[in-house]
């Protein structure tokens, strides 16, 4: 027979409400008779609780902040978050932890979160300073500029063909046709160039 909720709360050094919440959330499990096995419940509680949020006797047992960080560093993080966290840390220049065999600790996940916050703040600051531009707006402006440039060039043969024909002593209509043919070929070649705005 194990302990009651109040007895386990006294053993753990927390309130009976905290024990009730731990049971309701599934962090600790009850014995078939409804009592709590303190050794098993302590293991479950420690394994499924953020070390930074520990209270009571177990928080004091961690002692200093460095001991709390050491305990936090060994807590595994769900696999679903590992890839995005690893990518964030690689972008920040942090190397994978060699002794963990690919596992990610709570401390490294927290570090990735702080890196993301810093990157977000940096981008917001650069945007406020006017150092960043809106990609969609810039793409539309470049497209509009290129279209106006193309249209200006397409009208060029009609504007200059008569003067060039007079200078060369050739038929103006034929001159315009030749200029238009080669200009369209040149514009088609330029249209093949792909611009990457990343």
Fold and architecture overview:
By secondary structure, the chain is mainly alpha-helical. 66% of the residues lie in helices and 0% in strands. The protein has nine helices and no strands. The mean pLDDT is 79. This is Elements of external origin.
Largest sheet: none
Instruction: Give the tally of structural domains.
Output: 3
Q: Element order, helices and strands?
A: HHHHHHHHH
Compute the number of strand runs: 0
Q: What structural class do helix, strand and pairing data support?
A: mainly alpha
Q: Provide the low-confidence segments as ranges.
A: none
Q: Assign a percent range to the helix content.
A: 55-70%
Beta-strand residue fraction: under 5%
Number of helical runs? 9
Write down the Rg: 35 Å
The geometry reads as: rod-shaped
Average of the residue pLDDT scores = 79
Quick overview:
The protein is 66% helix and 0% strand. The chain is mainly α. The longest helix is centred in the last third of the chain and has 34 residues, at 135-168.
Topology at a glance:
Layout lengths: L4 H8 L3 H10 L12 H10 L8 H7 L2 H9 L8 H10 L14 H23 L6 H34 L3 H20 L7
Helix pairs in contact: 1-2, 6-7, 8-9
Which characteristics define this entry?
198 residues, 3 domains
